[in-house]
Amino acid sequence: MNRNPFALSIVLIGLMTGMLHGSESWIEDSFSDFADGAFSDAGANLYVSAAGRIQTINRWDYNGDGFIDILCPNSHPLLEMLDMSIYWGNGRDFSIERHSYVPADGPMKVEPGDFNLDGKTDLAVANFSNGTWTSMDSAIYWGNPGSNSDIEPGLWSSHPFQGRTSLPSQNAQGITSADLNQDGFPDIIFAMSAGFWEYRGTTGESPSRIYWNRDGEFSASDFTELATRGATDVDAADVNQDGWIDLAFSNGDGNESFIFLGGSDGYTSQNRISLPTNSPHAVTLADINNDLTVDVVFANQKGATSWAYLNQDGLFNPDDRVAFETTYAKDVVVEDFDRDGFADVFFTNHMYSYSGEAR
Question: What is the CATH number of the domain that holds 305?
Answer without folding.
Answer: 2.130.10.10
